[in-house]
Amino acid sequence: MRGHKWNPGRCAIGAQDEKSTSGDREGIVIRSTGGQCLVQVADTTWRCKVRGRLKKGPRESQTVAVVGDRVLFMVIDEASEPPSGVIEEVLPRDNKISRLAARRSGGQVEQVLMANLDQVIAVQSLREPAPQKSFVDRLMVAAERFGVRGTLVLNKMDLVPAGPEMEAEQKVWNYFQDLGYTVIWASAETGAGCDAFHDILTDRISLLIGASGVGKSTLLNVIQPGLGLRVNEVTEKTGLGKHTTTRTELFPLRDGGFIADSPGIRGFDPWDMEPLAVRDYFPDFQEPGQSCHYRTCMHRDEPRCGVKDAVNRGLIPIRRHNAYLALLGDLEERKAQVGYRSGG
């Protein structure tokens, strides 16, 4: 969310070995795979199973506990390596970033990528592979929807020749900056923009999202050598291997803050969103939308639409309006098939 204010106290992940009145300990989930989690408490990492009763009954969410969740767990074996426990309760979330888990789920299963974060960062490469503009649009919509700060990092700017090509790219991407989002132009090859990338991560809990090959790990290695390799590795010691869809894990940054990488995501269908509400999460539609003749104008087929007028006058890019229409169409199709279901 563009108006999000950072609370520096949030970065003390598992800073205290807290206990609830029931005797359970409180910690932060730093990795979640199936029914097992790694839970951080101070300097100790616990391997915890999710209590069976939490997984029973109808659920709209793919996973009970996700990275970033604050949980209460019961100690099973404090002397084991690593110490073990059982998660008894997932505490209420401040926010989250979530999407439709998979189209084969019929639009009824939510995949929460992370909870209790400060910002979601869309990492795109300007070349090799080509950027996915509609992906960025949808991720920023989800950030608006769930009250999370949205940030955009454009990597591999060294592959774009100076002159008309770079000017065209700047015109497209600086539009997001004009909307209030942070936009960082970077090159892991030359180091350009890496200081700004470092600063935006410091003292924040951040989730990086982007397709394979955009250079997330390379950027992380520039600001903290070895971090990208660590994000990509599988921790054999804990027995928590790669997830079949995505594997997200929190890693500490040496200058303060935590970073989570959700590898290989190409598509993003926001969860828990009524079609009529989509227009509210496009900040550039707000002012021209005041001129719409109909209060319930969807900025599509209606006459005397302020948003379409702004598009025709070049104030809103046609591409941006088309991205809105595509998302709107997807949500309407989902609703027609299964009906609207709240993601909680």
Highlighted features:
344 residues, alpha/beta, OB fold (Dihydrolipoamide Acetyltransferase, E2P), Rossmann fold, Ribonucleotide Reductase Protein R1, domain 1, 3 domains, six-stranded mixed beta sheet, five-stranded mixed barrel, 8 helices, 14 strands, disordered N terminus, disordered C terminus
Radius of gyration: 21 Å
Counting helices, strands and paired strands, the structural category is: alpha/beta
What is the total domain count?
3
Query: Per DSSP, what share of the residues sits in E-state strands of 2 or more residues?
Result: 15-25%
General description of the model:
There is one protein chain. The chain is of the alpha/beta class and 344 residues long. The chain folds into three domains: 11-90, Beta Barrel (OB fold (Dihydrolipoamide Acetyltransferase, E2P)), CATH 2.40.50.140; 98-262, Rossmann fold, CATH 3.40.50; 275-338, Ribonucleotide Reductase Protein R1, domain 1. It is built from eight helices and 14 strands. The protein has helices spanning 133-146, 164-178, 194-201, 216-223, 227-232, 286-289, 306-312, 318-338; strands at residues 18-19, 25-33, 36-41, 44-50, 70-77, 84-90, 96-100, 110-115, 119-125, 149-155, 182-185, 205-209, 249-252, 258-262. The strands form three sheets. It has a six-stranded mixed sheet, sandwiched between helices. Strand 2 (25-33) and strand 3 form a beta hairpin. The longest helix is centred in the C-terminal third of the chain and has 21 residues, at 318-338. The radius of gyration is 21 Å and the shape is globular. The two termini are 19 Å apart. Mean pLDDT is 84; it is low at 1-9, 234-245 and 340-344.
